[in-house]
Design brief:
Layout (H helix, E strand, L loop, with lengths): L6 E5 L5 H10 L5 E5 L11 H17 L4 E4 L2 H14 L4 E2 L5 H7 L4 E6 L1 H4 L2 H9 L4 E6 L3 H6 L6 H16 L4 E5 L7 H7 L5 E3 L2 H16 L9 E5 L4 H6 L5 E4 L3
Parallel strand pairs: 1-2, 1-3, 2-9, 3-4, 5-6, 5-7, 7-8, 9-10
The structure holds D-glutamic acid (DGL).
Length: 258
Amino acid sequence: MQNNNPIGIFDSGIGGTSIWQEIHHLLPGESTIYLADSKNAPYGQKSKEEIIALSEKNTEYLLNMNSKLIVVACNTATTNAIKELREKYDVPFIGIEPAIKPAALNSTTQTIGVLATRGTLSSDLFNKAVAVHHQTKIIEQVGHGLVQLIENGDIDSPEMNELLQTYLTPMIEANIDYLVLGCSHYPYLIPQIKKILPAHIKIIDSGEAVARQTRNILQEKVGFSNAKVVKNVFYTNAAPKVLNDILNNSYEVLFKDF
Ligand code: DGL
């Protein structure tokens, strides 16, 4: 099966580029269109209805550009809206959820930490996953303020360090041996997080799993591209500088008021 249309990817902002990197790494022959809805970030504090409406807007934008598959590169949008998206649109969706399962299965202290947005931690989808792993103690922490700092380009700042210290210290004291990054913005914080966590605590996120699942769905249902020219285009509806910076100025970044 062959399909040369692009893979569409959206997030509330620049964070989902961490997922895009994994997809691009695994599927370098695929063209991609990435939407950073930074004008509306953060999604994590919004109501379920607002998150669904924004996710529909992004999906329609990507479908208008002939996306053959849509990756919801945002835990908050996945856990609040993917069911509604799948019901409404006739295109395969891949979502991202906090990687509780591998953390719970591999934890030897039976205690894991999850750092995510309020929207993700309060969603039914997340709480169902927590209920399945009731034998594991799961310390949940909302990452208030982290997405805004990343969107402002303040990843390596004293404010960031202070927030991370506040959120991670209780988890360290509770003896976690896994930290689950439940927001696609947070992989960009791994260097700072590593400075705070003792070395034995493992950090996991879902980026690789999403890329593998994307490959599986292309193989089973949609088709891979065999186009000679691969295009990776990034759209943002806010100032493009931070998106350009996070991509090392290596890709085409366009401003569009979607
Ligand atoms: N990248 C989004 C996520 O994975 C960030 C959410 C937000 O905008 O608050 O949840």
